[in-house]
């Protein structure tokens, strides 16, 4: 147990450099390309807060944008795209999910998936419950995802 008092009195100092997960941010936007600018801006802001380099911030921003675009192709019209950011010391995990018309994960044999993997470092996808499709990303500070 960390004896250091927290800024909010509940164990959450807001400092992502300490031990373990500190912040979880969830955004829900309409599943439409016009709203991806909100997600790109939030991604860059959170990565900057986590002291990522400018290159890492740009890589993560593009990766989240690409993951979202892959999911929007088969999103149920009028549904919401959910994005959860988990900030840990030197690491940001991002989960992007949407209700899909076909319930199929994006193909991993595409150029888009290759770009996504190169930018994020760790990438995976899953399906369920129901027709929900999710892409998970993890980006470490200083990791160029090669």
Whole-number mean pLDDT: 85
Shape: globular
Q: What count of helical segments does DSSP give?
A: 3
How much is the radius of gyration in Å? 16 Å
Summarize this entry quickly.
The protein is of the alpha+beta class and 146 residues long.
List the SSEs and their pairings.
Elements: E1 23-30, H1 36-49, H2 54-72, E2 80-88, E3 91-99, H3 111-120, E4 122-127, E5 132-140
Antiparallel strand pairs: 1-2, 2-3, 3-5, 4-5
Helix pairs in contact: 1-2, 2-3
Could you walk me through the main structural features you see in this protein, from its secondary elements to its overall organization?
With 146 residues, the protein is of the alpha+beta class. It has helices at residues 36-49, 54-72, 111-120, and strands at residues 23-30, 80-88, 91-99, 122-127, 132-140. It has a 5-stranded antiparallel beta sheet. Helix 1 runs antiparallel to helix 2 and helix 2 runs antiparallel to helix 3 (111-120). The longest helix has 19 residues, at 54-72. The chain is globular.
Descriptors:
29% helix, 28% strand, 5 strands, globular, 5-stranded antiparallel sheet, 146 residues, alpha+beta
